Amino acid sequence: MIKSGEEKDILVLAELAVQMWESHSVGEMAEDMAEIMAREDAQFFIKYEQDIPVGFAQCQLRHDYVEGTESSPVGYLEGIFVRAEYRHRGYAGELLRECEKWAREKGCREFASDCELVNEESRRFHMAMGFSEANRIICFTKEL
Which regions of 38-128 does DSSP assign to beta strands (E)? Predict the structure, then answer.
């Protein structure tokens, strides 16, 4: 079962999210997610197996330019995670389809995502889900 994330689900979502975004605490993640959830252009979905939350996806609408797209807004997969012991069961694909459905309902004609260059598992997932690679970049910073 997949359900839309609601305010009462913030802690469940945050506990899943810190397993992917490890540089955040559960408290920080819950705070960030509460802000995002309050917006109409963002959505969370939670995958349950027998009442156990096993994964989540976060999507939103992007109105700025999205690499490789031609329309606006674009549905965007901001993050997707399935607990290791529940992977390879099609759950991430189910979560992605919910995000795509939500984006279509919001008027989007295109859907996009990204991953880090070194995240080969994510790249393989995206390719298996029908995404095509739009570009590769390396970002630079320096202190002034």
Answer: 42-49, 52-62, 74-82, 111-112
Look up the pTM and report it.
0.90
- d(CA 37, CA 35) in angstroms, rounded, equals 6
> CA geometry: angle at 119 spanning 142 and 42, to 5°?
85
With a CB cutoff of 8 Å and minimum separation 6, the contacts of 93 are 128, 129
Rounded distance between C-alpha atoms, residue 5 and residue 60, angstroms: 13
Digit-by-digit pLDDT tens for the chain (144 residues) are 999 999 999 999 999 999 988 888 999 999 999 999 999 999 999 999 999 999 999 999 999 988 889 999 999 999 999 999 999 999 999 999 999 999 999 999 999 999 888 889 999 999 999 999 888 887 777 788
